[in-house]
Each structure stands twice: as structure tokens, then as C-alpha cells.
UniProtKB/TrEMBL annotation:
<protein>
    <submittedName>
        <fullName>DUF1992 domain-containing protein</fullName>
    </submittedName>
</protein>
<dbReference type="Pfam" id="PF09350">
    <property type="entry name" value="DJC28_CD"/>
</dbReference>
<dbReference type="InterPro" id="IPR018961">
    <property type="entry name" value="DnaJ_homolog_subfam-C_membr-28"/>
</dbReference>
<feature type="domain" description="DnaJ homologue subfamily C member 28 conserved">
    <location>
        <begin position="7"/>
        <end position="74"/>
    </location>
</feature>
<dbReference type="InterPro" id="IPR052573">
    <property type="entry name" value="DnaJ_C_subfamily_28"/>
</dbReference>
Length: 135
């Protein structure tokens, strides 16, 4: 810790101990964080209006839809592996994964940053994940 960090820590500790922060407005309530620091200033009003009216950016809505489809696929795969012919289920799973991966690929092309991309699905990994654990 350098001298500046140490001085800041001491001032904060001193203020806490002397009770200077005990009666701040909003104490004990969650922060109301409205502004997104990553929004371009010229788009702030538009984004605010969208949020206030229950809308989101199209790529965020699509991500939610993709995540819901993947969860539904995984549930159906697990159910199918327990109750049907495994080879038939794998054929069905392969076609579903191909369809989902095409959608994921199109989605990934449209997101503004790489960190928002969705990882494509792998048949072997999904089958292994869906198989019940045996003792």
C-alpha cells in the first residue's frame, strides 16, 4: 500500500469511527443506479426511454431468447436420454444443436463487443451433461 492509499484509508476509518457517515440520506437502502457509464452521451435519453418502457436493445433481447432456448433444449435432452432410444435422441439433439449454433453465430455477428458473445454448443458435451450421474 502506498502513502496515498494509506492516508485515504486512515481518513475513511476516522470518519467511520467518529460517526460522520451515520446519518447520510438513503442509508440502508439499495443504490438507485440509473445511468450506464458506458452509454454514449448522445444516446443516453433514448436508452433511458427504452428502459422506462420495458424495452431493451435488440441483441440483448435475442440473447435472452437464445439462453431460454438452450435451457429448454437441455431439459428436453435430459428427458429424452432417460426415456427413449439414445441414438434417436442424439440425432434429434444434433439437429437442434445445428439450429441453435446457426442462431448463436448470427447473434455473435451482431453484438458490439466480444465479451457479449455466446459460446456455441457441442453435441458430446451436451449429451454428457444431460446424462444422469450413476453411483
Amino acid at each position: 500500500m502506498n502513502i496515498f492509499e494509506w492516508v485515504a484509508e486512515e481518513k475513511i476509518r476516522s470518519a467511520i469511527e467518529s460517526g460522520q457517515w451515520d446519518n447520510l440520506p438513503g442509508k440502508g437502502k439499495p443504490l438507485q443506479w440509473q445511468d450506464n457509464p458506458f452509454e454514449p452521451p448522445e444516446w443516453r435519453m433514448a436508452f433511458s426511454l427504452l428502459r422506462q418502457n420495458g424495452f431493451s436493445l435488440p441483441w440483448l433481447e435475442e440473447r435472452k431468447e437464445i439462453e431460454a432456448e438452450v435451457q429448454q433444449f437441455r431439459a428436453q435432452l435430459a428427458l429424452g436420454l432417460r426415456s427413449a432410444n439414445v441414438m434417436d435422441v442424439k440425432d434429434w439433439a444434433k439437429s437442434q444443436i445445428d439450429r441453435l449454433n446457426r442462431r448463436i453465430f448470427r447473434y455473435n455477428l451482431g453484438v458490439p463487443l466480444d465479451r457479449f458473445q455466446v459460446t456455441s454448443l457441442n453435441l458430446e458435451q451436451e449429451v454428457e451433461r444431460a446424462q444422469p450421474v450413476s453411483d
